[in-house]
């Protein structure tokens, strides 16, 4: 996957979806949803910018713009550059020299293609994926008239779904279920 985000991973997920639909004819292809968190949130944002086959989406703790997230992620810019397949140490760590590559791998670049109603669930103390990441997608979708919503969970971090307070985990699950009930 290193250096190939948004390529073979996207194709694998589309192939998997096709295979599920082939094997299980009772699954309604007109009522598919897509959802993911962290890297899965990135992929959710990527997917909705590259296909309209999903009728609803939920991106949790997601990245939308690598140009901005590269300098704010708590794991540091080297972590993200490595995953982008860019050896920052060989380049003396100059991240802005790679801004076109970072932008090309950013779901926000493809936001004009999005028609999928999208829910963004994010924690306000997530230092891995800062709050500006889902807000960039949300704001762009709203400007285009795409139904979208942000659910902000207070005093939780990136691990909300695994180690968050039970009440906040329920808020997340209820928001997710309500969104898919409404749009699927």
From TrEMBL:
InterPro entries listed in its UniProt record: AB_hydrolase_fold (IPR029058), Peptidase_S9_cat (IPR001375)
Signal peptide (from-to): none
Coiled coil: none
Keywords per UniProt: Hydrolase
GO biological process, one term: proteolysis
MF terms in GO: serine-type endopeptidase activity
UniProt-listed SUPFAM superfamilies: alpha/beta-Hydrolases
Domain Peptidase S9 prolyl oligopeptidase catalytic intervals: 3-184
Name of the molecule in the record: Prolyl oligopeptidase family serine peptidase
Organism listed in the record: Dysosmobacter welbionis
Lineage of the organism: Bacteria, Bacillati, Bacillota, Clostridia, Eubacteriales
